[in-house]
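Quick one:
INPUT:
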């Protein structure tokens, strides 16, 4: 018998993303930034299922990939192994990094918005910058909540996927509620006797100026804000993303 599709939602969340398409879109941005500052080592501070960490490692970089979820780290370890220059660690993004310094530290995939409060988010940014050498960079990616309407859910993904031997229909959306937001997930198993799973995960609404101030308070000398992975300037009303590049 296959295990319950809800015994490890890490695989469900991973299956929601078209990873080849996403990484192909983001790779030129990271390569350009990393080449500019001479990156040989990277900290992925909220690595999830390890896709970005594995990409960086595939470029010949030394990578430490950390996540608060032991399930995510185990999924990443199963998928990408334990080569000497790719280290998997269970650790929150607001915790000190004993293995620092790195040339760059990243917190992408809207992970910072999952912090329980602003104090934790600010501490996470501080730890990112503390983990890099002078002249190194911290890079944070957030969904730009402010371009979304206040109230209705924007459905982003509807797809079928096989997870843990079960056929599932996966539906994911996001909605803004005043100054914050929520990620909404619906998982519907093909088996008629298995009830659907639903959850709504809160997101911090972090403004661009607030994120920049967090970085400057943590010691960043230069902060650049982008609205996408093509280096377009950030526009609060139109940009899909808020990407911060903070140079120490």
């Amino acid at each position: 018998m296959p295990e319950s599709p809800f015994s490890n939602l890490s695989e469900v969340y991973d299956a929601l993303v078209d990873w080849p398409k996403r990484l192909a879109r983001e790779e030129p941005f990271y390569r350009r930034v990393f080449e500019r500052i001479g990156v040989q080592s990277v900290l992925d501070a909220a690595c999830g299922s390890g896709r970005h960490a594995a990409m960086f490692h595939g470029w010949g970089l030394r990578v430490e990939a950390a996540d608060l979820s032991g399930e995510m780290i185990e999924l990443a370890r199963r998928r990408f192994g334990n080569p000497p220059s790719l280290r998997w660690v269970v650790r929150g993004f607001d915790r000190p990094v004993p293995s620092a310094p790195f040339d760059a530290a990243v917190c992408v995939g809207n992970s910072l918005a999952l912090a329980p409060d602003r104090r934790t988010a600010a501490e996470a940014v501080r730890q990112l910058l503390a983990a890099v050498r002078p002249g190194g960079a911290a890079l944070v990616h957030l969904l730009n909540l402010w371009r979304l309407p206040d109230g209705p859910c924007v459905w982003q993904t509807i797809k079928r996927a096989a997870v843990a031997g079960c056929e599932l229909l996966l539906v994911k959306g996001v909605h803004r509620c005043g100054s914050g937001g929520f990620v909404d997930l619906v998982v519907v198993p093909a088996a008629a006797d298995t009830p659907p799973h639903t959850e709504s995960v809160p997101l911090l609404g972090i403004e661009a100026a607030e994120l920049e101030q967090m970085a400057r308070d943590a010691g960043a000398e230069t902060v650049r804000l982008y609205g996408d992975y093509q280096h377009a300037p950030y526009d609060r009303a139109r940009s899909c993303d808020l990407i911060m590049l903070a140079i120490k």
